[in-house]
Specification:
There is one protein chain. The protein is an alpha+beta fold and 622 residues long. The protein folds into four domains: 117 residues, no CATH class; 171 residues, no CATH class; 124 residues, no CATH class; 146 residues, no CATH class. The chain has an eight-stranded antiparallel β-sheet with strand order 7-8-9-10-20-21-22-23, with no helix packed on it. Helix 12 runs antiparallel to helix 13. The N terminus and C terminus are likely disordered. This is Type II/III secretion system protein. Keywords: Signal.
Length: 622
């Protein structure tokens, strides 16, 4: 019981209160804007975490007899008695969160499944939806990992990896690969894998494994092309960011590792650590497919990983809404809808909407401890209107309202003044911050939001490319870049040579890791042999450079091995190795290979472009 009280009042209470009262606070909109009052009554059903049952029992003065619904065949008298108990238990809890109890409102709750069905005016139901969303966002979760491997044509990989190097989320790239008509040859799905675990615990899966043959030979003989994936995800304190250590292997002998050397198949091994937001998709790696020859028909395989933090709940019980409709009858008819002008902005005030990080409330230093909310001078606290059809004028349903008078609020810490008539509201649904303030206040908020985006955690992304060309041409490029800090010009020359078929890309990989964490890649190409990368990147103090400790091995036979420590400027390609493979070439021309590494610092979340439609006072996404 005590734990439930702590959950409701210590962690969630005032945070949810602020989320709900904002709907009742009148927020000015653009001058002359008209808004339609929502006066209809509705019935809607929500899925609440199961802890709500304990909350109902624990709340002071509430009955403890909410012990399960009657049977579906029970009499109407039994159901009416249960509805009364449900109202007595649930409605006061909603009231403590700033959701008023209007005459005629009703709440039927099934404690076994966490299903809550309510009847009330649309603004009132909107408040409960915000409350539900906040409870769900803070409930315990398990982590779901979905892995997908596709095979695509090689000419699509270069532009794709270059675009991916600066993106925090690769969901759109995956959708584009799957979209019909985007290429002459559609992407072919090869493997799908899903794992579930809890934060801090490892999950592992293998596919296509013949353990008996492997155990007897140690070389994975008899195994078809297989997949092995092991991961340890940790959900960070903000509830939206996942730190993931993973070990991914795809090839003819997942456990044999470097015993692949004698195989004619392709494969890859990746070990690294990444940060990614809940629901995001990341490219793990790309490698050449088996049977590829030197030509335009080559295939490349690419692996995507998606993470989700999933709330454990029961399915919604449809009986709850059915019985509520039977008990309360048709919703009462409201007054005719009115169209009334919203209040004008106070003199000298402007309205702006900012896209802010999803962990704005946590990362911004906002603390919703139990206590009195602080309001700006002469601001009025919400009151319960006597008329259940009274309008609610606000930026959006489910916004969190906070003003600068509280010492622990982020805008106050930034010393941003909020004079009379100003306001600040945060909408969790689309992570936007609504500000009404004077020009100076708007400017200060813009600087504050920009600084928040700068403090978003970042990952280090390295694009590693091995390019092969005739030695005379490669030497000319090497001479042109010698003694120069950026080798971008030399790489551009080689890329043009690739398009003109004077050079070719032997290896192209995207590696992502965290600061000062090891990252390993082992790739087997049947044409050019094995390619290995072991690296550890350390970000410089100004975040414009990074120190890279790297070991490279590439080729068949004698091949090449380079161990080096180098310093890279962000976004600038650098040639870190150049050599002549001893067992390559057509016997007529001597060839050389160069390894280019390009580093980028990518935030795990990027702002969504927004705009304000001044005439309507609403926000839309571009």
């Amino acid at each position: 019981m005590q734990a439930a009280m702590t959950y409701l009042y210590g962690t969630v209470g005032l945070r949810l209160l602020t989320a709900c009262v904002a709907m009742l606070l009148a927020t000015p909109a653009a001058s002359g804007v008209e808004a339609e009052r929502k006066t209809e009554w509705v019935i809607k059903t929500f899925q609440f975490p199961l802890e709500l049952d304990d909350m109902a029992y624990s709340a002071s003065g509430l009955p403890s007899s909410l012990d399960g619904m009657p049977a579906p065949s029970a009499s109407r008298t039994e159901w009416e008695a249960y509805l009364k108990r449900s109202n007595d238990a649930v409605l006061p809890i909603l009231k403590t969160q700033g959701i008023p109890m209007y005459p005629g409102t009703a709440a039927l709750f099934d404690s076994k499944t966490g299903t809550l069905s309510v009847r009330g005016t649309q603004p009132w139901v909107d408040l409960i939806e915000a409350y539900s969303d906040q409870l769900v966002s803070m409930a315990p979760r398990h982590l779901e990992l979905s892995l997908e491997v596709l095979e695509v044509s090689e000419e699509r990989i270069g532009p794709l990896l270059e675009e991916a190097s600066i993106l925090a989320n690769h969901t759109e790239l995956l959708a584009r690969l799957k979209e019909p008509g985007q290429a002459k040859v559609a992407a072919q799905p090869l493997r799908r894998l899903r794992l579930e675990t809890v934060s801090g615990q490892r999950a592992r899966a293998e596919e296509g494994v013949t353990l008996s043959d492997e155990a007897s030979t140690g070389r994975g003989i008899g195994r078809s092309e297989g997949l092995r994936f092991e991961a340890r995800p940790v959900l960070l304190a903000d509830g939206t960011t996942i730190e993931l250590e993973y070990d991914f292997e795809y090839g003819p002998a997942a456990e044999a590792g470097k015993a692949w050397q004698g195989s004619r198949s392709s494969g890859v091994v990746l070990r690294s650590s990444v940060l990614l937001p809940d629901g995001a998709t990341k490219i793990l790696g790309a490698w050449r497919a088996s049977g590829a020859e030197d030509g335009s028909g080559n295939k490349v395989r690419i692996a995507f990983l998606r993470t989700r933090a999933v709330l454990l709940v029961h399915d919604i019980n449809p009986l709850v809404e059915t019985k509520l409709r039977e008990l309360v009858g048709a919703p009462p008819v409201g007054k005719p809808r009115e169209v009334v002008p919203r209040r004008e902005l106070p003199h000298g005030m402007e309205q702006r909407v900012f896209a802010v990080p999803r962990n704005f409330l946590q990362g911004g230093g906002v603390s919703f401890d139990r206590g009195e909310l602080a309001y700006a001078t002469k601001s009025s606290k919400p009151v319960e209107p006597a008329d259940p059809f009274a309008p609610s004028v606000s930026p959006d349903a489910g916004s969190v309202d906070f003003l600068s008078r509280d010492d622990d609020r982020p805008l106050h810490r930034a010393k941003i003044a909020f004079p009379e008539g100003s306001s600040a509201s945060y909408v969790p649904k689309d992570s936007t911050l609504w500000i009404v303030n004077n020009a100076e206040g708007i400017k200060r908020v813009a600087e504050f939001v920009e600084e928040m985006w700068r403090q978003i955690p970042r990952t280090l992304v390295c694009r590693v490319e091995v390019i092969e060309a005739e030695t005379s041409l490669m030497q000319a490029v090497a001479d042109a870049t010698s003694g120069i800090g950026s080798h971008g010009r030399g790489k551009e020359i080689l890329e043009r040579m690739v398009k003109n078929q004077q050079a070719r890309v032997v290896e192209r990989h995207r590696l992502e890791t965290l600061n000062d964490k090891p990252c390993e890649l082992y790739s087997l190409n049947p044409l050019t042999g094995a390619f290995e990368v072991e690296m550890r990147a350390v970000l410089g103090p100004n975040e414009r450079m990074m120190d890279l400790e790297v070991t490279l091995r590439q080729g068949k036979g004698t091949g090449m091995q380079v161990g080096s420590n180098t310093r890279l400027a962000m976004g600038e390609p650098r040639m870190v190795a150049l050599w002549n493979p001893s067992d390559e070439g057509d016997g007529k021309k001597e060839i050389s290979r160069a390894v280019f590494v390009t580093a980028d610092l990518v935030p795990i979340e990027q702002p969504v472009k927004t705009k304000i439609e001044a005439k309507q006072g609403t926000m839309t996404h571009e």
